[in-house]
Known about the structure:
The complex is a heterodimer of chains A (about 280) and B (about 350).
Chain A: H1 2-34, E1 37-38, E2 41-42, H2 45-50, H3 53-86, H4 92-104, H5 109-120, H6 125-132, H7 138-143, H8 147-171, H9 175-183, H10 188-217, H11 220-226, H12 233-241, H13 252-281
Antiparallel strand pairs in A: 1-2
Helix pairs in contact in A: 1-13, 3-8, 3-10, 4-8, 5-11, 8-10, 9-10, 10-13, 12-13
Chain B: E1 12-21, E2 24-34, E3 39-43, H1 50-58, E4 65-70, E5 73-74, E6 85-88, H2 100-110, H3 115-128, H4 144-157, E7 162-166, H5 174-191, E8 194-199, H6 202-208, E9 211-216, E10 219-224, H7 226-231, H8 236-241, E11 246-259, E12 262-278, E13 283-287, E14 293-301, E15 304-311, E16 316-322, H9 323-326, E17 334-339, E18 345-348
Parallel strand pairs in B: 3-8, 3-9, 6-7, 7-8
Antiparallel strand pairs in B: 1-2, 1-4, 4-5, 9-10, 11-12, 12-18, 13-17, 14-15, 14-17, 15-16
Helix pairs in contact in B: 2-3, 2-4, 3-4
GO cellular component, one term (chain B): ATP-binding cassette (ABC) transporter complex
Keywords (chain B): ATP-binding, Nucleotide-binding, Transport
EC number (chain B): 7.6.2.9
Amino acid sequence: MADRRRWADLAGLSPFLLYVAIFLGAPTVVLAVGAFRGPDGWTLENLHAAFTGVYGDAFVVSTELSLISAVISAVVGLAVAFVIAAAPEEGPLRQVVSTASGVLANFGGVPLAFAFIAAFGPVGMVTRWLSTNGVDISSFSLHLFDLSGLVVVYLYFQIPLMVLVILPALEGLRPQWVEAARSLGSSRWQYWRLVGGPLLFPPFAGALLLLFANSFASYATAAALTSGSIPLVPIQIGQVMSGNVAAGQENVGKALGLGAIVLVALAMGGYGWAQRKTTRWLR
Amino acid sequence: MTVLINEKAASISLTGITRSYGAVRAVDGLDLEIASGELISLLGPSGCGKTTALRIIAGLEQTDSGTVVVGGKDITRTPANKRDMSMVFQSYSLFPHLSAADNVAFGLRLRGVKPAVRRRRAIELLELVSLDHHADRYPSELSGGQQQRVALARALAVEPKVLLLDEPLSALDAKVRIQLRDEIRTLQRRLGITTVFVTHDQEEALSMSDRIAVMSNGRLEQCGSPAEIYSRPATPFVAEFIGSMNHVPGIADGATVTVSGSRLPLSVPGSGAVTVLIRPEAVRLTDDPNGNTTITTISFRGPVTRVIGRLDDGTPITADLPSVQAASFAEGGRVHVTYAEEPVLTKAAD
Lengths: 283, 350
């Protein structure tokens, strides 16, 4: 009976498993194998190239960008989520911010880049309107196309994503815990240090890792905004894919891809750990 | 096992406590004196203000007016964390990231007790609720009853002046509920701790309390020992809320009322057509083919048998009789109903 049930479950899951095998499993295997193949057979040259020179710089810059945008988004998103969690459940604030977060977290790529250029670029609408009203933001406009500008643009979809991810954890903090702690003699600060903080840490860390992975894997926004002038891993992979690579380094792109997958997998593994821990506590 | 006698138990005095939420007056001029070491139950239906009153004592709600005095000290505006009280909640309120022992030791940790000492004391407290062998389990690994026991141990660990219990048994199944209520009562007596117990379950209140304060619509209806509340209810609300009641039509005439041909003394004088409230155990049945009642149902309940009948005027009547006595009756039989000559309460005729 149990065996039949298990097979029935597997049968139901099979379309998804097939999808994952074709679009995630097979490409990963091709990348993993290709990363160690050169014109003359097995080699570590691709990996070496991927982590040195311009490609190595891309890993550093991507990590830097992802870390900065993830940390800022996590902190700001947490603060916003706190405000929403404290608002009445059926109130307009919660409804509006939750819905807006769902939309904005998925608003990226070329449309986002265009929106920022059209609004805050050197000749953007907001820039010009502010200029006519005596506010000069040209220095920000010029920075829109470098790393700091990219951070700002990433925050646009990262903060809403943080709100979406951390809000359930905040809502999971039961009022009875605060009251139980208070009745046992706890101050507000002690509650957060000994109860609220430790309970929120795994979901917060998990969300931070998710934001890091999300930022690290973003391609279209950075490509459209900077035209590839900032060396980021996804952009380097894109250039390799379009044939912009030195002779004999055709498989460096696969090594880059493998590196990115490993990094993102580590981040997502951490996210999974955090999720499991929280689920166990709140079971 | 160390005996943990609480020497800090304090009396509580509530005077004119009022608390409103918008137009709703949740607690309305509540006056209540609770003696040191006493277990008093706040009993009433949902929305009667009993939990609000408890939360006001705990400092988790503020009063609009009135005072809360504990151990002779006015603590009306003292924050909850400075009141030296502990509370056990209806829903499980253990901290999920801490083991049972760490939960129990939480209050001691706040008081700066050294880790080894608080661990030892936590185990003592867990022994008290028979859960010392589960000291390192997390709340998610404990049953509902076990979680409430740990919550009780956690509340007792800080040796509070007052223990507040907010329907701590209502989320548990019947068997565990009965077991745990006996344990709570035994512990409370042993420790001599002043305890305020909120419940909507009359059986719980009757079996556990030194006194019961029955509340309705934010007001105190009656406060007395379980026996007083049951046998001498002060108002129709109390009479109907505690135990079951027959509602029999009668004619009041000053200090007495005539009901089904019997004349009974009235607790509160009245006149005219009324509905008389009579406990099932105050109903007497005698075999009589020419009697005033037909028996419809007989249900055996161990030492007591419940006999349900219908008076000739159609009024349903329930009698709880010793089973030995009830054995002589049969369903469909005719009986004559009379009532024990005790003072009865009435309310307006239906």
